[in-house]
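Sanity check

After download, print the first record. It should look like this:
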Amino acid sequence: MKPSQVVRARWCDIADMVDLITHSLAGSVIGAWLVPDDRRRRILEQVTRIWTEQALLFGEAYVLADRSAVAVWLHRYGPVPALPEYGERLATVCGDLVNRFLLLDGVLSAHRPTAPHNHLTFFTVSSRRPRTGGAAALLAVSNARMGQTSLPTYTEATTTADRDLYARHGYLPREPFVLPDGSTAYPMWRDPGRRTSTARNRGSRSAAGGDSTPGAEMARWPPRSRAGRDDHP
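Expected structure tokens:
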């Protein structure tokens, strides 16, 4: 199996997925706001595990074969069920910071579409390994898998670089909103069957007799990281 091959994540992949997401979230602005002290890594790791468990039960996730990138999805066909004792687990893990997590939940939920869709809650790429076109392939493959449901997909970018990446994969911007830490979230929406800018450009080059190397453009633009959120009761 090639390191860049995309595979569906299983329960045994949770540790790798949590490590990737936690590493990215702990170094982000919103992560620093959620846990503004030396408990950050420990708390975020435990909370991320709760979120990941929920996604594997009520959604799906995909990883590169070498576990250097992960895409985590929730199926929002209706209200997402809560994990057993979710509130108690969150309160135990977060302690005096639990209200920060609940506030973030509330803000994201208030701006999230209510129509049925698939929600890309996390798209994270390891910063500890060389970046290749495999990460772009992961996003493209998981988008295609979600498109098989004939439902739109949604995500929140937290940097302009990630916003532009999603745009390259066929996502359209919605009205930005402010997160509790003061940073800006860029909600993105993708209708099923929408082609990436790379695919459209490749088709144009092919028609003109130009270069049509698969993935040539996106391989030069690997994503940095992505840390989103799913809502909980």
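If your output differs, re-run the checksum step. Summary of this record's structure: Residues 202-233 have pLDDT under 50 and may be disordered.
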